[in-house]
Specification:
The chain has about 425 residues and is an alpha/beta fold. The strands form 2 sheets. It has a 7-stranded parallel beta sheet, with helices on both faces.
């Protein structure tokens, strides 16, 4: 089925061809006609299946008719995903008069205010917190909103954005069209869906537990203190293109990036503590091949859209099975193939078994020949182990005090005070007796 059969305007079809799209994906085939018809939609599909174009194209078609104003709003959980969606919308709208914009935190708010108050936009991609900040400063108005999109809504709920989402929903017109797209649709999302959507049509093209078919998965059992050594061996022995290594925490990502850099690897880190400029530069260098390895946290896993990622490596096993699906979904995008490796320490065995139950399959265990799995100490000085409430930079904790040198041995005790006087008196008596 070609895009020409979906009822899209000629200007958007030109944008589709210029963006390199050949034929619509299953989610696009099913969702675009429903959105064009005005239905509320809940769409669940595999990561990398083309969800963004599935809602952007019909929204742009609707915006071509009517007066210029902010009429479409897309909410996303992270800065990276916001930039990705806005770029896709701008590319598809290149042959139209429509204006697309993006706002998110971590950067100065004044340029965003000037854009919204000055030339304005027809479609705005935003993170919930920054959008509410702009509304509180009277820089954005919602009375003309006709379409609302909740992209990766499950992640927004997981990240604690549910109160912000409810505040935004109360500010929007009641007669809007609402679309919810996500790679997973857990039960916890039903409350938000009930509040946001009216008689939605469900488009469920993949169970939430199924990664893309082109991903080859493997688990590497290894002691925790040997993980960096094993990762180094995998990177050196395996033919890889662009690689994303996922850690659980921001400080763990920084530490691992330093360790890999000391071993001669080209590496960058991506997490919430990096400035927006650093995050954009890391993604840009990864896409251009300047930096072959990106160490990232789960917060960034849904905002990384690089087509030619050949390998995803889980340095830490994620606690939530849904995070595992999203992590490995960074490879094998756009019908490509890729590999997903997971380094599992004995302490993480239960988390891995929960992932396998979620997937409904067992993941093959692999060992590297000639690697010393019984080494007592890693090949470089160990840094403090990280975990909940542990380590010098544990999340929410304080830095552990540096170890102090052992005190010198105490000198022999010296008699003093009344004890000294009594000892002198006894010595005089003894001399008299002699």
């Amino acid at each position: 089925m070609p895009f020409t059969t979906l009822g899209l305007p000629a200007a958007l079809l030109r944008g589709v061809r210029a963006a390199g799209y050949q034929t619509p994906t299953p989610i696009q085939q099913k969702a675009i006609p429903l959105v064009l018809a005005g239905h509320d939609v809940i769409g669940a599909a595999e990561t990398g299946s083309g969800k963004t174009a599935a809602f952007v194209l019909p929204i742009l078609a609707r915006l071509l008719e009517g007066r210029p104003s902010l009429r479409a709003l897309v909410l996303v959980p992270t800065r990276e995903l916001a930039a990705q969606v806005e770029t896709a919308a701008r590319d598809l709208a290149r042959y139209t008069h429509l204006r697309c914009g993006v706002v998110y935190g971590g950067v100065r708010i004044e340029p965003q205010e000037r854009q919204l108050r000055g030339e304005g936009v027809d479609l705005l991609v935003a993170t919930p917190g920054r959008l509410l900040d702009l509304h509180g400063r009277q820089s954005v108005a919602f009375e003309d909103i006709e379409v609302l999109v909740l992209d990766e809504a499950d992640r927004m709920v997981d990240m604690g954005f549910a109160p912000d989402l409810r505040r935004i929903l109360r500010l929007l017109p009641d007669d809007r069209q609402t679309l919810m797209f996500s790679a997973t649709m857990p039960p916890d999302l039903n409350r938000v869906a009930t509040e946001a959507l009216s008689e939605p049509v469900r488009v469920d093209l993949a169970p939430p537990s199924r990664p893309a078919a082109g991903i080859t998965q493997a688990v590497y059992p290894v002691a925790r203190h040997l993980k960096t050594d094993l990762l180094d061996e995998i990177l050196r022995r395996t033919s890889m293109g662009s690689v994303i290594v996922f850690t659980r925490t921001k400080h763990g990502a920084d530490r691992l990036a330093r360790q890999l850099a000391r071993r001669g690897h080209g590496v960058a880190a991506l997490h919430g503590n990096r400035t927006q400029g650093q995050r954009e530069r890391a993604l840009r260098d990864l896409k251009r091949g300047r930096t072959p390895i990106l160490v990232a946290t789960d917060i960034a896993s849904r905002g990384i859209d690089v087509v030619d990622i050949t390998h995803v490596i889980n340095y830490d096993v994620p606690h939530a099975p849904e995070d595992y699906v999203h992590r490995i979904g960074r490879t094998a995008r756009a019908d490509n193939t890729g590999d997903a490796f997971t380094l599992m320490s004995p302490e993480e065995r239960r988390d891995l078994e929960a992932i396998e139950r979620f997937l409904g399959m067992s993941i093959v265990r692999v060992q590297i020949p000639d690697f010393d799995y019984h080494a007592r100490v890693a090949s470089e000085p160990r840094e403090p182990r990280e975990g909940p409430g542990r380590g010098p930079h544990a999340e929410g904790g304080r830095a552990a005090p540096a170890a102090r040198p052992a005190p010198p041995p105490a000198p022999p005790a010296v008699a003093h005070g009344r004890r000294l006087k009594r000892q002198a008196l006894l010595e005089r008596r003894n001399r008299r007796r002699i």
